[in-house]
Specification:
about 475 residues, alpha/beta, five-stranded parallel β-sheet, about 30% helix
Length: about 475
């Protein structure tokens, strides 16, 4: 009687240790695949990370998620980090407006415990930054959005701004509602955004369920979640993590092979390219996806963050949005940063769609933003600035311009065992933490379904998302 042959161990290499790569690696490892995760930087987390500035722990940028971001919330749960995030019990966005004469007024966008779309009706009815006529225009626009079919490919050829004008929206409604939300979530103004992506954001976030747009933020530095907790869980799952390790070439032959910069060759049944779009484009062998040259036309969009430490508290709320000012959103980061100066407050100003400012010198940004903060927060006029610095992500997201959808590839390629992940892939979501995690699930799903050289997984490797 012959001895049965033990099944061959399945293997995978995931290139990129951002949220997409973390998700894909965990899913594969949980399904019994021997997985190696490569990351060129000295830490995990991709573009949602922390660093030290003296005694201050700084997030590279302010990242938020919504209650409807079920995939990201599932990852947080998988990492055992639910106690490290804060999720609003009910959407509440303070909006501070500055008139040309310097007069300030505070409005709020918040929801009630009512069915969609009535959950926002009371807030809009009293929203002081719009006239009664413009409030009605916003309601009509929201009702028109609710009727859209997100599967209609024609939406991607139209800009959100053009659609808003066709539906009676004014510059005031665009500034006080549509761009207030859209710029922060899409990283582009309405005129530069694909209607398909904008419709997805507003339908899912504001018009699907009453609590869908409740805002979540990290209650600790991002690195504690996306590096510390992720590292612990990946290692517990058996993933081999290799930091400061850059992939130089991907060879798709009889067995997929990743050549590292030092010359070492790693072979695996499946390779998941989970890095940024330019990194994946550089590694993809010719013929991996149809019209592969299109990736060269896939643009990026920057995000700028201005960080200011004052010698006294200036705001009592966790954050606020601004109108009539270059300032977009201001967040209180004091508790999260470990700021040790008694009575001081650390504010982070998050500026999306920052093409015109991303390369300005720090001195010029200081001269621009400190006076603006004084206009918004009169208490800043007598406060002393203890620290001022800037973080820049020049390629923070993909460019969400009209026509974007046709540029975004799916998880599967035409090469067996080669898969793609990243918020820039065809998730249907904008470039967010949610989109990144969903792309990691899509790549793992494709691998475990037997695409390419990885045998079909007969178990259920999925964890809640």
């Amino acid at each position: 009687m012959s001895t049965p042959t033990a099944p061959r161990e399945r293997t995978a290499v995931v290139v990129g240790g951002g949220l997409a790569g973390i998700t894909a690696a965990l899913r594969l490892a949980d399904a019994g695949v021997r997985t190696t995760l490569l990351e060129a930087r000295p830490r995990l987390g991709g573009l949602a990370f922390s660093f030290q500035r003296g005694e201050l722990t700084v997030d590279n940028g302010q990242h938020v998620y919504l209650r409807c971001c079920t995939a990201y919330r599932g990852l947080v749960d998988r990492l055992g980090a639910n106690a490290l995030v804060d999720l609003q019990p009910r959407l509440d966005v303070p909006v501070l407006s500055l008139a040309p004469d310097g007069t300030r007024s505070l409005g709020r966008l918040r929801r009630a415990e009512l069915p969609v779309p009535l959950h926002l009706a009371g807030s809009l009815a009293t929203y002081r930054h719009l006239s009664p006529a413009d409030r009605l225009r916003v309601v009509r626009g929201a009702l028109a959005l609710q009727k859209l079919d997100l599967a209609d490919p024609a939406l991607d050829d139209l800009s959100f701004g053009e659609w808003l004008r066709r539906h009676g929206q004014t510059p005031a409604t665009v500034a006080a509602v549509w761009d207030l939300v859209g710029v922060a979530t899409l990283n582009a103004t309405a005129d530069r955004t694909s209607m398909a992506l904008a419709a997805m954001v507003f339908k899912t976030g504001l018009l699907s369920e009453p609590g869908a747009a409740d805002i979540g933020t990290a209650g600790v530095p991002l690195g504690e979640i996306h590096h510390d907790r992720a590292t612990a869980e990946l290692e517990r799952a058996g993933v081999r993590i290799r930091l400061r390790t850059r992939a130089a070439e991907l060879k798709a032959a009889e067995q997929n092979a990743v050549r590292l910069e030092g010359g070492e060759l790693l072979t695996a049944d499946t390779v998941v390219l989970a890095g940024a779009q330019d990194t994946a484009a550089a590694l993809l062998p010719p013929g991996a996806i149809p019209d592969q040259h299109r990736l060269a036309g896939f643009g990026t969009a920057p995000i700028l963050n201005v960080h200011v430490v004052y010698d006294r508290p200036l705001i009592r709320r966790p954050f606020f949005a601004a109108l009539g000012s270059p300032v977009q959103f201001v967040f209180d980061r004091t508790r999260h940063s470990g700021l040790a100066v008694p009575g001081a407050q650390y504010l982070a100003v998050s500026q999306s769609a920052a093409e015109d400012e991303i390369d300005l010198p720090v001195a010029e940004l200081r001269a621009r933003y400190l006076p603006e903060l004084e206009r918004l927060l009169p208490a800043a006029r007598g406060a002393r600035v203890l620290d001022f610095f800037v973080t820049r992500e020049r390629t923070a997201t993909f460019d969400p311009a009209p026509g974007t959808a046709r540029l975004r590839p799916g998880a599967r390629t035409d090469l067996p065992g080669i898969l793609l992940a990243g918020s820039w892939t065809a998730t249907g979501w904008p470039a967010t933490m949610e989109g990144a995690v969903r792309s990691g699930h899509a790549a793992a799903d494709a691998a475990l379904a037997g695409h390419g050289r990885l045998p079909v997984d007969r178990g259920d490797g999925r964890w809640p998302r």
